[in-house]
Amino acid sequence: AAVPTGRVLAAIGLTGFADTLPWSTPCPVCQAGRLSLYQDTAAGSVWCHCPACRTAGSVVDLFAAVRSSTVAEAAERLCEAVGVGPPSDRSAAALRSARDARRAADRLWRA
Question: pTM for the full model?
Fold first, then answer.
């Protein structure tokens, strides 16, 4: 079963989420901009973006940016923080694939 978004955000240190997207909060990465969260229907998850520091990606990518860790380390730490088992190899591969697709789209928009 999927972990509720509010539990994941609380593990990142973000509070006040009312289970409604889109949602905006001070960015925990740069502390200068506004982090916006949107429903990512293609990935079946939440997509985060801060225009000030250009942080973008899934909540796992956000956790990695906040903790200055790799996505794999962030996935493991996030699972521990919300009390679920470690990510499977399949889940980790899916996270990398989704991240790579977002980066490719970002490069396309910048071109």
Answer: 0.76
